[in-house]
Design a protein that fits this description.
Pathway: Membrane lipid metabolism; glycerophospholipid metabolism
CATH architecture of the largest domain: 3-Layer(aba) Sandwich
Order of helices and strands: EHEHEEEEHEHEHEHEHHHHHHHH
Structural class: alpha/beta
Helix content: 40-55%
Subcellular location: Cytoplasm
EC number: 1.1.1.94
Number of strands: 10
Strand order of the largest sheet: 5-2-1-6-7-8-9-10
Number of helices: 14
CATH superfamily of the largest domain: NAD(P)-binding Rossmann-like Domain
Function: Catalyzes the reduction of the glycolytic intermediate dihydroxyacetone phosphate (DHAP) to sn-glycerol 3-phosphate (G3P), the key precursor for phospholipid synthesis.
CATH class of the largest domain: Alpha Beta
CATH topology of the largest domain: Rossmann fold
Catalytic activity: sn-glycerol 3-phosphate + NAD(+) = dihydroxyacetone phosphate + NADH + H(+); sn-glycerol 3-phosphate + NADP(+) = dihydroxyacetone phosphate + NADPH + H(+)
């Protein structure tokens, strides 16, 4: 039995993908009455839940599961962990970002809140709609305990959902978080009409920024070159399906954006900009995004701030 906490698009997609392979899945959410009744997910374009997926609003249903996938918005994770008495012994974070209060990622939050639990992170280039449709997807499973990571890799992999394993939890956390910030910047570049060459340059310099911060915090460079870093960056910066890219595109084009849509990169930009200042790490793209989304700088000034930086060796 596998538990999924969070009946949003990504949590539901994971429940569908696992349920389709015959796994017994319990999918928890606060307002899941309509989903339980219809068995159809509006968030995923009407995808039907397999019969093996049970929808529940009772969090105690997670206690008897082999592993619980935590698919909540990043900024809701700390509050959920504080307010929950869930007794699951294996927790897998399925969200991307940096907590604004603690400046840490989701797996770190879980380890601090549940020190006796086995904690892992599932991240990488993936759109919920693709997973729900059964399209081939490869993800990173990060777990500091490699034996536990191997067990989870076998448990959660399917014929079309391929998991690659790492013990570098910090690198996997940061790759998934930081690519959202760079995706906002990439969307802004395209929305402002600056062209594909500018997007390529922005992605490249953004990737260098991701690696610089990750190495300073103890991650491995090869983790950032993998699915959870470079792979996710390519997907998120290159597709309008990405909420972060679409948000940035609206910023660049000066068009409205649906305020009800969660854009994880906004809070992450604020958190990482603070982290960079505290650690003395130069993060120009992140600082620009944080200033732009907070209204402390306009688009013209943001572009100028990047283009007028001192010339240097690559």
């Amino acid at each position: 039995m596998i538990g999924v906490v969070g009946a949003g698009a990504f949590g539901t997609a994971l429940a569908v993908a696992l349920g389709r392979e015959g796994y017994k899945v319990r999918l928890w959410g606060r307002d899941v009455g309509p989903l339980a009744a219809s068995r159809m997910s509006d968030r995923l374009g009407g995808v039907r839940l397999p019969d093996s997926v049970t929808v529940t609003a009772e969090l105690s249903a997670m206690d008897q599961t082999e592993a619980v996938l935590l698919a909540l918005p990043m900024q809701a994770v700390a509050g959920f962990l504080r307010g929950s008495d869930m007794q699951a012994q294996t927790l897998v974070a399925c969200c991307k970002g940096v907590d604004l209060q603690t400046l840490t990622g989701p797996a770190t939050l879980m380890s601090q809140a549940r020190p006796k639990a086995t904690v892992a992170l599932l991240t990488g280039p993936s759109f919920a709609a693709d997973i729900a449709r059964g399209l081939p997807t490869a993800l990173t499973l990060a777990c500091a305990d490699d034996a536990a990571g191997q067990r989870l890799q076998r448990l959660l992999s399917t014929p079309v959902l391929r998991l690659y394993r790492t013990v570098d939890v910090t690198g996997a956390e940061l790759g998934g978080a930081l690519k959202n910030v760079i995706a906002i910047a990439a969307g802004t570049v395209i929305g402002a009409g600056l062209g594909e060459s500018a997007r390529a340059a922005l992605m490249t310099r953004g990737y260098a920024e991701m690696v610089r911060l990750a190495l300073a915090l103890g991650a491995r460079a090869e983790t950032l070159a993998g699915l959870s870093g470079f792979g996710d960056l390519v997907l998120t910066c290159g597709s309008a399906q990405s909420r972060n890219f679409s948000y940035g595109h609206a910023l660049g084009a000066g068009t409205p954006f649906n305020a009800s849509v969660t854009v994880e990169g906004v809070a992450t930009a604020r958190a990482v900009a603070r982290l960079g200042i505290e650690r003395g790490i130069d993060l120009p793209v992140t600082a620009m995004v944080a200033a732009l989304v907070d209204g402390r700088i306009d688009l013209s000034a943001a572009i100028q701030s990047l283009l007028t930086r001192p010339l240097k060796a690559e």
